[in-house]
Task: inverse folding
């Protein structure tokens, strides 16, 4: 991960994204209007009637450096019906790094492969351990991406957030500033805390929240996958949390391309509830379109589990 400032306990920031356009500014630049079309520009996936995701290039970026993966594992028991295990991953390639789009794609696939293999082999495995192992495998995959030492860009890097949901219990692991929210008809909450430079500064008492919101390093990270040169990948240390999903709860995984425009749980809930009882794909598409209408300055990815 990025180095530490001399005689300080604050990590040097690795910039992930530039500041978003002012809300409401949706005019793409001439360069954006001329950019070629890519299969990654817009992807929609439905893995289950209650599980779907959407990624979109947005308005301003030349390409989509976000990636996501969805999967379900069916549990076959002869006595009772058991809901499947839901697996979701969102990665956001660090824009100041070389091959950020490759890093996000490689990482998302590596996490999903590792999760699928471990939980298919042993559905009763410790989920936190399985998630940490999967993220370490992804870290190795990102470090394996070719990188020229004389490059002016940082080494390949990406955020990652991964969720495993089984029988209503969500276990979430992350590095970086991709987030998880929960929303019901009456309540909402944020399940993650960004591994951001401004959060580290506030924790150290070096910056107030008001100062953080206008800092040029608002979207700078101190922890992610990749982002440095090493003979072998160091140990990734993701944060992990658990959450019990009551009936009617929707779990939202997203990149900062969405939460740039709906940051607080209350703002996210307001956008989600605009779809009323919409299915997950409808909700995910609505959240992506909301971000595009309000600026779309970054790539946007949203995964929704639940109705």
Result:
């Amino acid at each position: 991960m990025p180095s530490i400032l001399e005689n300080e306990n604050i990590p040097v920031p690795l910039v992930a994204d530039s500041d978003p356009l002012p809300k409401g500014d949706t005019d793409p630049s001439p360069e954006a209007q001329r950019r070629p079309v890519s299969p990654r520009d817009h992807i929609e996936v439905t893995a289950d009637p209650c599980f779907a995701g959407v990624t979109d290039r947005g308005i301003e970026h030349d390409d989509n450096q976000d990636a996501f993966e969805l999967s379900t594992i069916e549990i076959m028991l002869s006595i009772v019906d058991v809901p499947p295990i839901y697996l979701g991953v969102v990665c956001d390639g660090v824009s100041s790094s070389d091959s950020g789009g490759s890093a996000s794609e490689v990482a998302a696939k590596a996490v999903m492969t590792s999760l699928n293999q471990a939980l298919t082999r042993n559905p009763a495995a410790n989920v936190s351990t399985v998630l940490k192992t999967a993220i370490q495998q992804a870290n190795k995959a990102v470090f394996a991406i070719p990188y020229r030492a004389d490059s002016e860009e940082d080494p390949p890097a990406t955020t990652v957030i991964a969720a495993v949901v089984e029988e209503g219990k969500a276990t979430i692991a992350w590095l970086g500033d991709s987030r998880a929210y929960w929303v019901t008809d009456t309540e909402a909450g944020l399940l993650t805390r960004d591994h951001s430079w401004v959060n580290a500064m506030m924790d150290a008492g070096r910056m107030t929240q008001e100062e953080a919101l206008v800092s040029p390093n608002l979207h700078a990270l101190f922890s992610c996958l990749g982002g440095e040169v090493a003979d072998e990948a160091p140990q990734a240390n993701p944060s992990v949390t658990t959450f019990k999903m009551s009936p009617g709860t929707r779990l939202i995984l997203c990149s900062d391309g969405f939460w740039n425009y709906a940051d607080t749980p209350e703002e996210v809930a307001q956008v989600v509830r605009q779809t009323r009882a919409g299915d997950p794909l409808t909700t995910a598409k609505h959240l992506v379109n909301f971000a595009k209408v309000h600026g779309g300055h970054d790539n946007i990815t949203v995964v929704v589990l639940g109705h």
Remarks:
- Residues 198 and 213 are 9 Å apart (CA to CA).
- The first helix runs from residue 30 to 34.
- Residues 42-305 form a domain with the Phosphatase 2c; domain 1 fold (CATH 3.60.40.10).
